[in-house]
Design a protein that fits this description.
Elements lengths: L22 E4 L4 E6 L5 E7 L9 E4 L1 E2 L4 E6 L7 E8 L1 E2 L18 E2 L27 E4 L1 H5 L29 H8 L3 E4 L3 E3 L17 E7 L11 H15 L3 E6 L44 H18 L3 E4 L7 H14 L4 E4 L27 E3 L1 H8 L18 H8 L27 E4 L8 H8 L5 H17 L3 E5 L19 H4 L5 H4 L1 H16 L8 H7 E3 L7 E6 L10 E7 L5 E4 L6 E6 L2 E2 L6 E2 L3 E4 L3 E7 L1
Parallel strand pairs: 10-11, 10-19, 11-14, 14-15, 15-16, 16-17, 17-18, 18-19
Antiparallel strand pairs: 1-2, 2-6, 3-4, 3-7, 5-6, 7-8, 7-9, 12-13, 20-21, 21-22, 22-28, 23-27, 24-25, 24-26, 24-28
Length: 646
């Protein structure tokens, strides 16, 4: 048996190959094969007629060069054939499609030789990314491909597939817009898709029999087959491009959730079956380290691992016109790699968004000072992290179902709420000693901070509030959801919404639904009618943010100069003003009051201004027609008030 301890290997001396031709490259005249495997004794390239046929129709031995690459060239038309690599490294390893495969057959065990030009849908040459002048202009909506359409109430025909995002005119049983029309109606600017690269946990021949979020990557550069109408041909690529093109046509960018921090398999991964041990970090005893909590972590600091990640991201960005990337457990990545990613993406388009989770799931052997954790975000160039401090301040501890936050009546989180309102940047009016989870600001600029109340992980916002405030009325829970959305969408930084949050999505109390069935994970489009008031409120919040740049200032200096917290203090209330036409806003002053109490509160107002009421209770008036005068104003319990000096 292969010895899987790596304490005796110096991976730093492995040769570096800088070429851009790894993998299998097709033309009708020839197919070129190249794989980096410096420790291999022998490598065979094996051709098959189908993705599941038993015997190869050809075995081609590859030749090794000085940089550890094994290659060959076959001068015949191989389009439509399937392939694997097999590496002899002390013993024969498992057959794999290799780490660089861009198209795979059923369940991802074999690569598929294809003509890339034939995967472009009609009109693809005219597809363009969505312009995003500044990251804080983005409003991100996180959704799982299958959840989006699988419900019988979705009105979509291509249930659970990429193509569902291309369907227009779809309606719920109550006649309300669903699918891409709903996204346009809501007004979000970017869709964040949970992993769409090929993962191993769903049987692509019977996708209806299992479910997974997709954080178990198998083939990083190939689209997932269970989301395609036929997982055994190039339609995986074509249909995903159709998704991108449909969203771009709707003015919506596409962000991919990428999982380069770990692989689904460890010993049997394509990396480990090609260059054993190289792609993973090890503990001092040579065993695999596990900062991902999934059995392994990629050694992003090693030259060929870094190159792999950069090449993969460039491929997705260029080939699929992707608008951004979200990095799962970004705290596993080293800072140098993340800054290289930003540089490479800028060469493609500066509009590409980059953000991720600024933490790990377990300890890593790589010094934290060298990794892309939240408190190192200032060392990264135009890369953002999720503001978990703000998330917990809004709704309560994310991992404790019963923990309460600002919107659910906890009156100890006002300072932590202010911390999020200024996008985790330094502000002289914040008393950081009272910000329990982060005693100092960690963002240098607002574009380094992604604000959210919920995401795919843990309880949905609605479920969390229902569990943590069990004696609340249904009406109070609705108000809490609205106030949470109001806080996120009026704060500085980059706002992020979990799909269905805008109509009180539930997973029936399932806090970790990564492999639960569709009845738990599906977006129930019938809830849009049941919570139409919540949807309308979110819709107006998004419109307000898009119309008024004061809510999306582009620098910390601008925030400090134009955002002033009120000296008025009452437990459960936060009040502040955006002053002097902040960020060029047409309104001279905007006064915001957030009331997390159940009771109506009287708040003092500057009487010398020509105030108009923009938001009051559960209503937002974008035209701000109703005037207000007086020294005090009553703010309804569990609500946001906005006054504007027009």
């Amino acid at each position: 048996m292969r010895d899987w301890k790596f304490d005796h290997i110096d991976f730093s001396v492995f040769p570096y190959y800088g070429g851009n031709d790894l993998g299998v490259s097709y033309t009708p005249e020839k197919t070129t094969i190249k794989i980096w495997a410096p420790t291999a004794i022998e490598v065979d390239f094996r051709l098959y007629s189908t993705s599941r046929s038993t015997d190869p129709i050809r075995i081609e031995p590859l030749t090794k060069d000085a940089l550890g690459c094994w290659s060959s060239e076959i001068t015949s038309d191989l389009k439509g054939l399937y392939y694997t690599f097999q590496v002899l490294d002390h013993e024969w390893m498992n057959e794999t499609p290799g780490p660089d495969a861009r198209l795979v057959g059923m369940n991802g065990r074999r690569g598929l030789i294809f003509n890339p030009e034939e995967t472009n849908p009609k009109g693809w040459e005219n597809d363009r990314r969505v312009a995003c002048q500044h990251p804080t202009d983005a409003i991100i909506y996180e959704v799982h491909v299958r959840d989006f359409s699988i419900s019988s109430a979705s009105g979509m025909l291509n249930k659970g597939k990429f193509l569902a995002f291309t369907e227009e005119g779809t309606l719920s049983p109550q006649g309300l817009k669903t699918g891409i029309d709903h996204l346009k109606e809501l007004g979000v600017t970017h869709i964040h898709l949970l992993p769409v690269s090929d993962f191993f946990s769903v049987d692509e021949s019977h996708p209806e029999k299992s479910y997974n979020w997709g954080y178990d990557p198998l083939n990083y550069n190939a689209p997932e087959g269970s989301y395609a109408t036929n997982p055994d041909n190039p339609s995986r690529i074509t249909e995903f491009k159709q998704l991108v093109m449909a969203l771009h046509k709707a003015g919506i960018g596409v962000v991919l959730d990428v999982v380069y921090n770990h692989t689904g398999y460890t010993r049997r991964s394509w990396f480990n079956q090609t260059v054993p041990g190289y792609y993973y970090r090890q503990k001092s005893n040579g065993a695999f380290s596990n900062a991902s909590g999934c059995g392994n972590e990629l050694a992003t600091e090693r030259s060929m691992v870094r190159k792999y990640i950069l090449d993969s991201l460039k491929y997705w960005a260029k080939e699929f016109h992707i608008d951004g990337f979200r990095f799962d457990l970004m705290g596993v990545y080293d800072l140098v790699t993340m800054n290289h990613i930003r540089q490479e993406m800028d060469r493609i388009s500066p509009d590409i968004l980059l953000y991720g989770e600024g933490w790990t799931a377990d300890k890593s052997p790589l010094d934290e000072r060298l990794r892309a954790v939240k408190h190192n975000v200032a060392k990264m160039n135009r890369i953002a992290v999720f503001n978990d401090d703000f998330r917990d301040a809004i709704k309560g501890n994310n991992f404790d179902g019963h923990g309460q936050g600002f919107v659910s009546g906890r009156t100890l989180d006002e300072e932590r709420l202010k911390f999020g309102i200024v996008a985790a940047c330094f502000h002289p009016q914040i008393v950081y000693a009272y910000v329990q989870s982060s005693p100092s600001p960690w963002a240098s600029e607002p574009y380094q901070c992604v604000n959210y109340a919920s995401c795919h992980d843990n309880y949905t916002l609605f479920d969390k509030l229902t569990i943590s405030v069990p004696k609340s009325t249904a009406e109070s829970i609705r108000k809490m959801v609205m106030l949470a959305g109001a806080i996120v969408l009026t704060s500085q930084g980059i706002p992020f919404i979990h799909a269905g949050e805008e109509f009180c999505r539930t997973k029936y109390g399932d806090h970790n639904s990564y492999n639960s069935d569709d009845s738990i994970n599906q977006i129930d489009w019938e809830r849009k009618a049941s919570f139409k008031d919540v949807f309308s409120y979110y819709q107006n919040l998004i419109a307000l943010r898009k119309i008024h740049p004061a809510f999306r200032m582009s620098s910390a200096e601008m925030i400090r100069g134009h955002l002033q917290f009120s000296s008025y203090y009452e437990p459960g209330v936060v009040a502040y003003s955006l002053i002097n036409h902040a960020n060029g806003d047409q309104w001279k002053t905007i006064f915001i009051v957030l009331n997390g109490n159940n009771t109506t509160m009287k708040v003092p107002v500057d009487p010398g201004k020509n105030w108009r009421i923009v938001a009051s209770g559960q209503t937002i008036d974008l035209s701000a027609e109703k005037a207000f005068s007086g020294k005090d104003i009553w703010v309804e319990g569990i609500s946001m008030l906005i006054l504007a000096e027009v």
